[in-house]
Specification:
The chain is of the alpha/beta class and 217 residues long. The chain has helices spanning 17-26, 49-58, 76-82, 97-106, 152-166, 183-189, 198-201, 206-214; strands at residues 4-7, 32-37, 63-68, 86-90, 110-115, 133-137, 171-175, 193-196. It starts with a strand and ends with a helix. The structure holds D-xylitol-5-phosphate and zinc ion (ZN). The site of zinc ion has 6 residues, from strand 2.
Length: 217
């Protein structure tokens, strides 16, 4: 089954966001992946509400918003208003994760939980049936264009087992360092959604690259 592909706008040319948005709109991509960084949870600052609202105004596909911020609860409603369809928060940033997930769902968004490379999949045991997606970080969050951490394959397999055991409907999203070589093994291991920034936006033909990532056979 083909994967869902979510190009990460972080790697787009910010002087031509319009071009990036229309490329994604016309391509076989499924979602826009938007990385929000606060300079506290991660050592980088990306973009916030004005940019997300501008993208939402032109995007013809759902916005998959990945929050790399402390205190995400404070802003959940604002992200809904800005146009997010799927909102992922980091397990490492949430003291009351269950409540945060309830808030996200109550506002009519799909709820995702992102986990850093060092965070074990087992920490999701008691939340997996409440969420729509797990965003497995395959790099340390903060920057596009980093090298894929191979151990992620073990985590995809373990997460798939957990999802099957609990009959959870959660999708597995892999985020960071996804490229033309690891896309197929990731899908075979159980990944449902591939995020790709650098691989898409440095490609001479981004829509062909998206097409390949969806079904890399
Ligand atoms: C990393 C972000 C990723 C990143 C992916 O902190 O969460 O979404 O933009 O970019 P690539 O595909 O270039 O690793
Ligand atoms: Zn991301």
């Amino acid at each position: 089954m083909p994967a869902l592909v979510a190009p990460s706008i972080l790697s787009a040319d910010f002087t031509d966001l319009n071009g990036a948005i229309s490329m994604v709109n016309k391509s076989e991509a499924d979602w826009f992946h938007l990385d929000v960084m606060d300079g506290v949870f991660v050592p980088n600052i990306s973009f916030g509400f004005p940019v997300i609202k501008a993208i939402a105004g032109k995007a013809k596909k759902p916005l998959d918003v990945h929050l790399m911020i402390v205190n995400p609860d404070k802003y959940v409603e604002e992200f809904k208003k800005a146009g997010a369809s799927i909102l992922s928060v980091h397990i490492e940033a949430c003291t009351h994760l269950h409540r945060t997930i309830q808030n996200i769902k109550h506002l009519g968004m799909k709820a995702g939980v992102a986990i850093n490379p060092h965070t074990p999949v087992s920490l999701l045991e008691d939340i997996i049936t409440n969420i729509d997606m797990v965003c497995l970080m395959s790099v340390n969050p903060g920057f596009g264009g980093q090298k894929f951490i191979e151990h992620t394959f073990n985590k995809v397999l373990r997460l798939k087992e957990l999802i099957m055991e609990t009959s959870s409907k959660a999708k597995i999203e892999v985020d960071g360092g996804v490229d033309l070589d690891n896309a197929l093994p990731l899908i075979r291991a159980g990944a449902d959604v591939l995020v790709a920034g650098n691989t898409v936006f440095t490609s001479p033909n981004p829509s062909e690259t998206i097409k390949f990532l969806k079904d890399p056979l």
